[in-house]
Amino acid sequence: MPVWDAVIDGWMLPVSPADAFASGTINAVPLITCATLGELTGPGPLVMPFLVQAYIDMLEAVSKKNSRGYACIFDQVPEQWRKEGGVSAHSIELPYVFGDWDNTTGWWNSIAMLMQTCGAKTKEVLLNVSDKFVSEAMMNLWTQFAKTGKPAVKGLTDWPAYDKTSDKYLYISEKLDIKTGFSRCFEK
Fold first, then answer.
1. Which of 38, 110, 126, 175 is most buried, with most CB under 10 Å away?
2. How far, in Å, CA of 86 to CA of 74, rounded?
3. What is the pLDDT of residue 3?
4. pTM of the prediction?
5. How many structural domains compose the chain?
6. Nearest residue to 69 (alpha-carbon basis) of 143, 155, 172, 170
7. Helix (H, G, I), strand (E, B) or coil at 171
8. Is residue 3 part of a domain?
9. Which domain holds residue 85?
10. What is the mean pLDDT of residues 126-152?
11. How many Cα atoms within 13 Å fall on the side-chain side of residue 80?
């Protein structure tokens, strides 16, 4: 199955997204790619280390069209789940991006089911100040990106656009860290 599966209808989607990126027939706009560390390393049912290369292909395609792309790896896990052996499961970043650091929506109940397949033992999520910091930081970065095409917020981090030469990406955990080696540090 292709990485980005879609229904090709010949009108709205004349080619697959993967083919569009590979051929450069995209309408390039600034792009953020984000994988969770658990998606790349496991354990769990959704381990997809091939995401890194797929994201690099997308980032390079937008760069060739004179646009910018930003790479990130998300690894924030609520403290008790991490202590139990839990890793950042598929989609765990979404409640942070959308500001549900206090579980007011109940979204964390779905995440808890995934977390139990990724090492966590308990269902109940206990969120703390680190979770709030990560959520606030991500909301600020993503909002600034939506406004300007660059995820830059004074006082948080200087998240550089991805380029093959520097191979830099943003690593999100209890703190935000710019790291080098996006293309090679998650190879299997």
1. 38
2. 14
3. 54
4. 0.90
5. 1
6. 170
7. strand
8. no
9. 17-180
10. 96
11. 10
Q: Rounded to an integer, what distance in angstroms lies between the CA atom of residue 144 and that of residue 153?
A: 7
Dump pLDDT digits (tens) for 83-123: 999 999 999 999 999 999 888 888 999 999 999 999 999 99
Residue 33 in contact with residue 60, Cβ under 8 Å?
no
The rounded distance, in Å, linking the Cα atoms of 7 and 15 is 9
User: In a 10 Å sphere around its CB, with 0-12 CB exposed, 13-18 middle and 19+ buried, how is residue 152 labelled?
Assistant: middle
Residue 10 lies inside a defined structural domain of this protein: no
114: nearest Cα among 125, 103, 105: 125
Identify whether the C-beta of residue 13 lies closer than 8 Å to the C-beta of residue 27: no
Residue 74 identity (one-letter amino acid): F
Q: Which of 111, 93, 118 is nearest to 42 (CA)?
A: 118
Residue 60: CB partners within 8 Å, gap ≥ 6? 69, 164
Residue 84 has what DSSP assignment?
T
Beta bridge partners of 168: 180
Helix, strand, coil content of the chain in percent (nearest 5):
35, 15, 50
In a domain, 130, yes or no: yes
Of 131, 159, 154, nearest in space to 31 by CA: 159
- Asked if residue 51 belongs to a domain, the reply is yes
Residue 40 near residue 3 (C-beta atoms within 8 A): no
Among 99, 93, 129, residue whose Cα is nearest residue 111: 93
Nearest to 120 by CA among 131, 109, 104: 109
